[in-house]
C-alpha cells in the first residue's frame, strides 16, 4: 500500500493558482522591460513584490498541508 | 503508472517514503549525550559557513592588485553584484551605502548555507530547518521596522498601513489587509519561502536515495533493479536543478530584504 497524506494532493492543486499568478506577473514584467528597457529599475521591485505576495499563497498552502491533520 | 505499479510489487516489505522528521539529526556535541544542547549538524554548518566566508574574503583582498588575481576577481564581482545589482538598484543611489554590509552578509551567508546542500557529506541545507530561517527573517523584520521608525517616527505605522490615493470608503477593508500582509504574513513568507524550497530539495535527495535503495536491494526482479539505477541517474538532473534553485533563493531572499528596507526608508514616497 502507498503511505502518505491526501494533504499533499490538495497542496498540489492549491499551488496551481499561485503558479499561474507568478507566471502572469513575470510575463507582464518581461513585456514591460522588452517594450521599455529603461523602466527595468522601476519595474523590478514591483514585480518582485507581486511575486512575493502571489507565492505567499503557495507557501501558506504548504504550511497548512503539513500542519492540518497530518 | 509507476506510482500504482510500485506498491503492488512490494507487498511484503512496503516502501515507506522519508518524511520531514527524517531531517531532524541527532546532536553532535556532546557526542551521544542524553541531554540535548541543540548543537547539531545544522549548527555546525552555520559556524563553518561564517568561518569560510570570513576566510575567503579576507584572503581574497589581503594584497589587492590593480590587475586582480582570479580569487580577487571572484570576490570583487560577488561584492559588485550585491552592491550594484541589489543594493543600488533597489534601495536607490541616495540611501544604499549604509546597507551594503547587511545585504552582502545576508546574500553570502544564505548562499553558502544553501550550497552546503549540494556538497557530499554535508548534504543538507542549513535553512531546511524552519528555525534557522525564522532567525534570519526576524533579524530582517526587526531591522526594517527600526529603520522605518527612525526615519519617520511613530508616523511610520500610519504610512505603512494606510495606502495613499485610495477613496475613503474602502479604507476599513484596506487597512486590516495591509496590517496582515505587511506585519504578519511578510516575515512568515520571507522565512518559509527559503525553508520550503530548501526542504523540498532535500526531500528529493532523500526520496531518490531511499527509493533507489528499496528498488535495488529489497526488490528481486531485474526490471525493478534497473529502475533503481534509473532513479539514481534521474536524481543527478534534479541535483543541477537544485543548484539553480539554491542560488536563486539566496538572491530572492536578499532582494526581498532590500525591497523591505527600501519600503521602510521611503515610506512617504508613494
Automatic annotation (TrEMBL), chain A:
It is found in: Cell membrane; Membrane. It is a multi-pass membrane protein. It holds the Pfam family ATP-synt_C. Residues 9-67 form the V-ATPase proteolipid subunit C-like domain. The chain crosses the membrane at residues 12-34, 46-68. Keywords: ATP synthesis, Cell membrane, CF(0), Hydrogen ion transport, Ion transport, Lipid-binding, Membrane, Transmembrane, Transmembrane helix, Transport. InterPro entries: ATP_synth_F0_csu (IPR000454), ATP_synth_F0_csu_DDCD_BS (IPR020537), ATP_synth_F0_csu_sf (IPR038662), ATPase_proteolipid_c-like_dom (IPR002379), F/V-ATP_Csub_sf (IPR035921). The record marks 55 as: Reversibly protonated during proton transport. The keyword Transmembrane helix applies. Its main location: membrane. Key component of the F(0) channel; it plays a direct role in translocation across the membrane. A homomeric c-ring of between 10-14 subunits forms the central stalk rotor element with the F(1) delta and epsilon subunits. Belongs to the ATPase C chain family. This is ATP synthase subunit c. It comes from Glutamicibacter ardleyensis.
From TrEMBL, chain B:
Its main location: membrane. The keyword Membrane applies. Keywords: ATP synthesis, Cell membrane, CF(0), Hydrogen ion transport, Ion transport, Membrane, Transmembrane, Transmembrane helix, Transport. It comes from the Bacteria. The chain crosses the membrane at residues 43-61, 99-121, 127-147, 159-185, 191-210, 222-241. It is found in: Cell membrane; Membrane. SUPFAM superfamilies: F1F0 ATP synthase subunit A (SSF81336). It is a multi-pass membrane protein. It holds the Pfam family ATP-synt_A. CDD domains: ATP-synt_Fo_a_6. Belongs to the ATPase A chain family. Key component of the proton channel; it plays a direct role in the translocation of protons across the membrane. This is ATP synthase subunit a. The lineage of its organism: Bacteria, Bacillati, Actinomycetota, Actinomycetes, Micrococcales. The gene is atpB.
Amino acid at each position: 500500500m502507498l503511505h502518505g497524506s491526501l494533504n499533499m494532493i490538495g497542496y498540489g492543486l492549491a499551488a496551481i493558482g499561485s503558479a499561474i499568478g507568478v507566471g502572469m506577473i513575470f510575463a507582464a514584467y518581461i513585456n514591460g522591460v522588452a517594450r521599455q528597457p529603461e523602466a527595468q529599475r522601476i519595474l523590478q521591485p514591483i514585480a518582485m513584490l507581486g511575486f512575493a505576495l502571489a507565492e505567499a499563497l503557495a507557501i501558506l498552502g504548504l504550511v497548512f498541508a503539513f500542519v492540518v491533520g497530518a | 503508472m509507476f506510482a500504482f505499479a510500485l506498491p503492488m510489487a512490494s507487498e511484503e516489505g512496503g516502501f515507506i517514503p522519508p518524511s520531514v522528521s527524517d531531517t531532524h539529526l541527532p546532536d553532535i556535541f556532546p557526542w551521544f549525550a542524553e541531554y540535548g544542547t541543540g548543537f547539531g549538524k545544522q549548527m555546525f554548518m552555520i559556524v563553518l559557513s561564517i568561518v569560510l566566508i570570513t576566510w575567503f574574503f579576507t584572503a581574497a583582498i589581503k594584497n589587492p592588485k590593480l590587475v586582480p588575481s582570479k580569487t580577487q576577481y571572484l570576490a570583487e564581482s560577488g561584492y559588485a553584484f550585491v552592491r550594484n545589482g541589489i543594493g543600488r538598484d533597489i534601495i536607490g543611489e541616495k540611501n544604499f551605502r549604509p546597507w551594503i554590509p547587511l545585504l552582502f552578509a545576508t546574500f553570502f551567508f544564505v548562499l553558502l548555507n544553501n550550497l552546503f546542500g549540494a556538497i557530499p557529506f554535508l548534504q543538507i541545507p542549513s535553512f531546511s530547518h524552519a528555525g534557522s530561517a525564522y532567525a534570519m527573517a526576524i533579524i530582517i523584520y526587526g531591522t526594517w521596522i527600526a529603520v522605518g521608525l527612525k526615519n519617520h517616527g511613530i508616523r511610520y505605522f500610519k504610512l505603512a498601513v494606510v495606502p495613499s490615493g485610495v477613496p475613503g470608503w474602502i479604507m476599513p477593508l484596506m487597512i486590516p489587509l495591509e496590517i496582515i500582509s505587511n506585519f504578519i504574513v511578510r516575515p512568515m513568507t520571507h522565512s518559509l519561502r527559503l525553508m520550503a524550497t530548501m526542504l523540498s530539495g532535500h526531500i528529493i535527495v532523500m526520496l531518490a536515495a531511499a527509493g533507489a535503495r528499496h528498488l535495488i536491494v529489497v526488490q528481486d526482479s531485474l526490471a525493478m533493479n534497473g529502475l533503481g539505477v534509473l532513479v539514481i541517474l534521474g536524481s543527478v538532473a534534479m541535483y543541477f536543478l537544485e543548484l539553480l534553485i539554491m542560488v536563486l533563493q539566496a538572491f530572492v531572499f536578499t532582494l526581498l530584504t532590500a525591497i523591505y528596507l527600501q519600503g521602510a526608508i521611503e515610506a512617504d514616497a508613494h
